[in-house]
Amino acid sequence: MTATSDRSTDQLPSAVRSLASSLRLGYRADPWLIVVAFATSVAAAVPDALFALGLAAFTDSVIGGDGTAVLMSALALSLLAACGWLLNTAAERVNRRFADRAGIVVESHVARLQSEVVTIEHHERPDFVDRLSLLRDHAPALSELYQQLFAVAGAVLRLGLTVALLMSVHPALGLLGVCAVPTVLVSTWRAGIEKSAEEAGAQHDRLARHLFVVGSTPAAGKELRVAGVRQRIRADRRAAWERRYRPMARARWATAIWQSASYAFFGIAFCVAVGFVAQRGDSPAGQVMLVLAAGSRLSQYVGQSVSQTHFFRTIWLDCARRLAWLEGYARTVEERADAPVPERLRAGISFENVSFTYPGTDRPVLKDVSFTIPAGAVVAVVGENGAGKSTLVKLLCQLYRPTSGRITVEGTDLSRIPAPGWRRRLSGAFQDFVKFEYPLRTSVGLGDLARAELPRAVDEAVTRAGADEVTAVLPRGIDTQLGATWPEGVELSQGQWQRVALARGFMRRSPLLTVLDEPTSAMDAETEHALFERYAEAARASSSSTVGGVTILVSHRFSTVQMADVIVVLDGARLVEHGSHEELVARGGQYAELYGIQAAGYR
């Protein structure tokens, strides 16, 4: 697997392949219910379509004055009506029950696919994010895919039976069905045009939603009011919404005109058909009634077919295509690793001419980076914003793979080591950490699920991260529910949340790699220094025992990074120098200059 996905994943799969994939998923959800739902949905179309034939028979029997024929045709009409009602009711109930089952399966499937992809390209690449946001929004609707598909099948059967009844009066009346074709073609074309407009406006829709959340949530309320930018946020949200809506409105108006024209064409053809049958002298009243009933129902069935085809194409089938795309994407980045995870580090971790460019961009974030992290070492990575520090950490965590070059662990290419197994030997914390709104004990325990239920393990992690200062002020201590929106929940400050995240990083025993990507930005320099010293001591202790684990520290505070064994300086995507603090200061290069500037600021 390379850093960039296969080009085939850039395009949505075909409708047929996507539909087949979704049907297989639905069949796995409940084989019996999906078969019954299909059978009842299609069967309900038969009595509905044959009602016109019964009405024609009833008309002829009334005009003929045959009392027995009148009774039999009336009974046939009532039987058709009752069967149609019963089958439609059964189909609706069965489809609803199946949709509930399928909804759970589909949403779980979508969530599993997104979470189990070993890289995070699909979370950061803009075109993929747009595609996934639409899939997430419509994922609940995917459970209705099967009901809509069955409804379309029933509509097609109704149309076929109705056209057959019309042709039984005169073969030329089959042309009335041909005249309905433009409405279906225009509907299909309309669905594609409108879906393209929706896809093109997805990023504006995401921006409008983001600004709505920013403007209506407590977290941002203080800053918006103090800065006086509430009106600007509202205006920007309105502008983003209009950038999304206006192209869609233009597309809808244009396609609506064509659809109206196709309906008008069919209406004229229907009037001509009725007149043609009525003016024939040999036509019994029943045939005229058949054409009137079947023809008018044909118009209704065409409308239903057009509406169902439109929604099926724009919502359900398009969601199915996105789901099939996600399944295919997950397969292109699935694990093909064949090397075991090392039990300990001896030779360390090496970067060998590593370059990386984010998918969808042209500018390298890292270029020809080469250095070695000795076993048991604490390595600090410094550099200006955008120098590639966080990207280097992502590569080490196998969240991306190098565009060129390689990273080796004990001489083995990291890409050959299974990502899940490698990550089980990782720990640490990130600047963009997750605020897990569980009880604090659980939120910390998530750092190592195998030990999450061990009170002593959690308590030790809390103490080592200095989070015991947080538990001391909480109403229920370490068992306090986090998050103010939950019953008896408490909201933490940013610094307190960071300590909880750091405690999660202390949960895992003897990791091979600990990554600390600026997780203490809300803390003062003295607190950060003390915390990182604890991590460094833990890393050196593991080196002296049996693991040889290394620690990667990313920080912009030079008072903290000088404790590291090796300092790596990145600038403009390149490694410009590396060595110990004393070596780099003596060299008088970029690190020495930046260190001097920051030290002067503290003095």
UniProtKB/TrEMBL annotation:
Pfam families: ABC_tran. InterPro entries: AAA+_ATPase, ABC1_TM_dom, ABC1_TM_sf, ABC_transporter-like_ATP-bd, ABC_transporter-like_CS, P-loop_NTPase, Type_1_exporter. It is a multi-pass membrane protein. Residues 35-314 form the ABC transmembrane type-1 domain. The lineage of its organism: Bacteria, Bacillati, Actinomycetota, Actinomycetes, Kitasatosporales. It comes from Streptomyces pathocidini. One of its GO terms (molecular function) is ATP binding. It is found in: Cell membrane. SMART domains: AAA. The chain crosses the membrane at residues 32-57, 69-87, 253-278. Keywords: ATP-binding, Membrane, Nucleotide-binding, Transmembrane, Transmembrane helix. Its main location: membrane. This is ABC transporter ATP-binding protein. Residues 349-597 form the ABC transporter domain.
